[in-house]
Design a protein that fits this description.
Number of domains: 5
CATH superfamily of the largest domain: Bira Bifunctional Protein, Domain 2
Largest sheet: 7 strands, mixed
Number of strands: 33
CATH topology of the largest domain: BirA Bifunctional Protein, domain 2
Strand content: 15-25%
Shape: elongated
CATH architecture of the largest domain: 2-Layer Sandwich
Structural class: alpha+beta
Number of helices: 19
Distance between the termini: 90 Å
CATH class of the largest domain: Alpha Beta
Radius of gyration: 40 Å
Length: 703
């Protein structure tokens, strides 16, 4: 929107230079994008937010400038010099749909002479990019930009029975608007009609048949307040946005209807001659009452950080048009009547914003916000933070996905979830198992996610499509499922738990090796165990199992303290093909709520060893089903105090191995705290270990 600087000076006694004024207005929340010099004037180009329709006029900006600078405000002259006769003698107004038109005023000017506008009026309009038409049309445009109230002038002689009917359009009704286009109306659109036909689209544009022409002598000046939503709908439906609709759909001053009309009529009598009626036919069936809002001065500082005296707050608000209410000082509170042009002010915080922006946002000092509590993490936050730090240090990136997914991502052709839910997520099976949004904000994304994995897989596909093949992601968030209704209100609500998911794919680097290797299940397992260790929960256990979305033979259930909490493994071929993955992708998902519910393992510290340890390797041929974890637990369960650790050195599966067998090489470390162990002592302990492995797993020492 463009505002003329010279025009502003007609309305207020500002002395600031145009660019200085633009800076002050911008700092007060009325953004000025540019200042252009045009002839002997400067034009300020504003980018206003939709909640400030009061500033869509020169008077609105002048009021803001006066409040910021302390200058006086000069209101336009509304005196009509030539008057005669009552308005109802020449016209009548009927409002059939008061819900869409709460107020309509009509005033008649007789004996006008249509001619070009004087130079000063032409210059004012051209400065803000308006094309002059004739004196009466130019005056309505001038008042629109001066006061912000759209007006329309009808040729009274062209109105059937010289009367106005405000009604909804009839089915199939058509109207040729001032731009020469015939438009078909619908029954939801409000029109201005005479006794026979529609003559204007209310709040948008007038009709061609009743426009002002060179032969016009009597003019009916319309000034009204239309429902903003109705005008916006009509404007969008017709694809027709005008200066009038731009203001009406944001909300004009409902008490400014007569002021703008009087200003327009006064200028018509001055520039086009004629005699105006003494009054107007003003149909206003239900008066709109502006709100009164209280302001506690202390709230200004509490919300903005600005220490503004109560007297200064009152001065600022009065300068913006807020009127102190009776008994305005009660218990340290001020009450203000909201001016009718400020449709955006309804609550105390709105008044605080007015005070703060005029007083100056630049005066807000730097200070830490006060807090009634000492700084600490909420329950579980410290453990979550520790897991994040460990995973990011290991090369993982944290993902954040939206909480709803498309049905095709979560549901297979049988109507079942493509992903097995984490343990602890109560749900019903089959149809109705998902939480479905009745009004999704993204078309098609109607399901609340039952798993974090769809989001991670979409992120991985995005990375693959952009050439990134090595991906390590983790995410925490809530997952949802429907559960069977019951008499208990809480039990009928959707089930939800906090989940924790990881994804690994691509190449993995190993310490001391220049070339990488393909990431595998153990990289995923290591990441999950590192996170669990950082959260100081007990040791995770993995056991082979069949999981719906994981590849058979490369999937496992995850347990903690004997309780199943999740699953991990390689993504199934079906899902990999669906996402068009051409390399193995490993995923894990666990119930984070269950993890955090476990007791936090205390941190234990031991002195650094003073005596050397002894490492012994043992290579055993065992059944392929025997895992290293089982062997490790068997060794530690022997209770040998000096046994300080068991590590896997190598796994060999070759032609020399019997069918169904493989060789595992383990390294067992022995150390005593108070002395150096003798070889015979280590031999005895190690013999117990070998014997236990041979007896429990049927393993044989490899020669």
């Amino acid at each position: 929107m463009d505002i003329s600087y010279n025009w502003l000076r007609d309305l207020t006694e500002i002395t600031l230079a145009p660019r200085d004024l633009a800076d002050r207005l911008t700092m007060a929340g009325l953004a000025v994008d540019a200042v252009h010099e045009k002839g002997g004037d400067h034009v300020l180009e504003f980018d206003l937010t939709s909640n400030r329709p009061d500033c869509l006029s020169n008077l609105g900006i002048a009021r803001e400038a006066a409040a910021l600078t302390g200058a006086g405000l000069k209101l336009p002259d509304l005196t009509v010099k030539n008057v005669g006769g009552r308005a109802e003698q020449f016209t009548a107004v009927e409002i059939e749909d008061a819900d869409l038109c709460p107020r309509y005023a009509a005033r008649v000017v007789r004996g006008v002479k249509i001619q070009p506008s004087p130079d000063w009026l032409v210059e004012r309009l051209q400065a803000i990019g308006q094309r002059p038409i004739n004196n009466v049309a130019d005056i309505t445009n001038f008042v629109l930009h001066e006061l912000g109230q759209p007006l329309h002038a009808f040729d009274l002689a062209k109105l059937s029975e010289f009367r106005i009917v405000v009604r909804r359009a009839r089915a199939g009704e058509k109207l040729k608007t001032l731009d020469g286009v015939e438009r078909e109306l619908d029954e939801q659109m409000l029109v201005i009609a005479d006794a026979v036909r529609a003559v204007a689209v209310a709040g948008v544009m007038g009709g061609e048949e009743t426009e002002i022409s060179g032969g016009t002598t009597d003019v009916l000046v319309e000034s009204a307040y239309f429902d903003p939503q109705s005008v916006r709908r009509t404007s969008k439906r017709l694809g027709l946005q005008t200066e009038a609709s731009y203001r009406f759909e944001r909300g004009v001053d409902y008490e400014g209807v007569r002021r703008a009309q009087d200003r327009c009529v006064a200028l018509i009598c001055e520039l086009a001659g004629g005699t105006a009626t003494e009054d107007a036919v003003d149909v206003y069936p239900t008066r709109i009452t502006p709100p009164t809002v209280r302001l506690r001065p202390r709230r200004v500082e509490e919300l903005s950080g600005l220490s503004v005296p109560a007297e200064e707050s009152g001065r600022i608000l009065r300068s913006l048009g807020f009127e102190p209410a009776e008994g305005d000082v009660q218990n340290g509170e001020l009450s203000f009547g909201v001016p009718t042009w400020r449709t955006d002010v309804k609550i105390e915080e709105d008044l605080v914003e007015e005070v703060a922006r005029v007083y100056g946002y630049d005066k807000i000092g730097e200070a830490l916000p006060p807090s009634p509590v000492t700084g600490e993490y909420l329950l579980g936050d410290r453990r979550r933070r520790a897991a994040r730090q460990v995973l990011t240090a290991a090369g993982f990136n944290e993902a954040v996905s939206i909480s709803f997914i498309e049905e095709s991502s979560g549901v297979n052709e049988s109507g079942e979830s493509r992903f097995e839910p984490v343990p602890g997520l109560q749900k019903v099976e089959g149809e109705g198992a998902f939480v479905v949004l009745s009004n999704p904000i993204i078309e098609g994304a109607r399901l609340m996610r039952p798993s974090l994995l769809p989001g991670l897989l979409e992120a991985t596909r995005h990375n693959f499509n952009h050439g990134t093949r090595d991906v390590r992601l983790f995410e925490t968030g809530r997952v949802f499922a429907a559960r069977a209704a019951s008499g208990d209100e809480d039990e009928s609500r959707p089930s939800e738990v906090e989940a924790f998911a990881l994804l690994v794919t691509g190449e993995a680097l190993e310490e001391g090796k220049a070339a990488g290797r393909a990431a595998d299940f153990f990289d995923l397992k290591g990441g999950l165990e590192a996170a669990a260790d950082a959260m100081r929960v007990g040791e995770l256990e993995f056991e082979p199992a069949s999981v719906r979305h994981l590849r058979e033979g490369q999937s496992a259930r995850v347990r903690l303290g004997g309780q199943e909490i999740g699953h991990a493994g390689r993504l199934s071929e079906e899902l990999a093909a669906r996402y068009k993955f051409r390399q193995p992708v490993y995923v894990a998902e666990v119930n984070l709520t269950a993890l955090l519910a476990t007791g936090e393992r205390p941190a234990r510290y031991t002195p650094l060893p003073r005596f050397p340890g002894v490492a012994r390797d043992v290579s055993l041929v065992a059944d392929r089903r025997v895992t290293f974890g089982e062997m490790r637990r068997a060794i530690l369960s022997l209770g040998i105090e000096e046994c300080r650790g068991v590590a896997l050195v190598d796994v060999y599966e070759g032609a020399s191995m019997p069918e169904g067998k493989r060789s595992l090489t383990l390294r067992v470390e022995y150390r005593a705290d108070e002395r150096t162990l003798r070889d015979e002592e280590v031999d005895a302990m190690h013999a117990r270990v070998v014997s236990a492995l041979e007896g429990e797993f049927g393993a044989q020492l490899r020669g």
